[in-house]
Specification:
five-stranded mixed sheet; 19 strands
Amino acid sequence: MFYKALFNINIHHGYFLDSGDQKFLPIDEDDEELSDIEKEKALIPYSINEYLKIIPSKTTQDLCKNHRMLLRPHKQGFRLLIETEEGEEEGRYSPIIPLDDTAVLTFEICATDAYFNNYTDIVDISKNRMYLFSNTVPEDQISAFENIFDENGGVVDKRFLLKAQATRDLLRDIAAEDDFTQPTVADQFSIPHIIDLIEADEELTDEQKTNQVKKVLNALIQEKKKQGIIGYLRLSAKGDDDNHLLEYDETDPDDIQQYTLEILPEFTLSFINKKTFWRYISTSDNAILTTNSTKWSARNGFIEIKTDDFDADGLEPEDTDPENYSFPNPTVATVKKEDDDYYSEIFI
């Protein structure tokens, strides 16, 4: 018997892997990219434990227990292993306990760093939308929604962002799965039970039922976001366009065989670090100097600020001479949103 990997997930973040404005993963055409050697060095101290936690759903924990699967974290992410035995064909391995082809593995992606939103280009917490990384694209999503198997470098952007209704549907599905798998004595307070009561209330119109269910699910989304949940990794045993976690031999419909894939499905999700305007506030003379363009946030390296990074519109008073000041890089602790722009404030 052997444990074979079903898939491996790497999660990267530009804030931790960039060096100043040199990018581990270029986002814009004019971005300067780190060399391969510099990338290898950047990954040595890197660990997602500094800012993220991956949490399997109750249903997934149950699936892992019942199918002899092991979740194995590593510095860049995690892999999922399943216990197998060698099949009749040499070098092919079948799960000891086959997975139902409708099985879905769900993991919460939870930000644990209080400043995560300050240095990550991510949807605002007030919006009822979450990210989904999946090998099955929701039917009501726009055509540009990304299947995790697609080769786009895994950049976490709007291609993985669910609409508000799709987010509500996702959380409702996960709650129903968990409620079915592990019912508790507090079922009367569970989301599925509350929704069932609303939909069974004959005194409510269809519109009222829809609005009340929407309200319950929006509250659940906000509760999850306050816990740091930014999205979900959700992989089906059988995905869209043959993007499966296992190989299925259906030659004999009465005896379908499962095998682990010869080429391990491996995905890298890359969070984009936030760009902000840098606002320098002089404590000696109350001058304010704001850069005329946004700058990358990065924990490592240094971005040099020069006098031509300012123009008259960003100086208070307008006759302030930038040459009279020095310009350190900001920390992530003081980021403010004004209208649709973000500002990092640095006191000098």
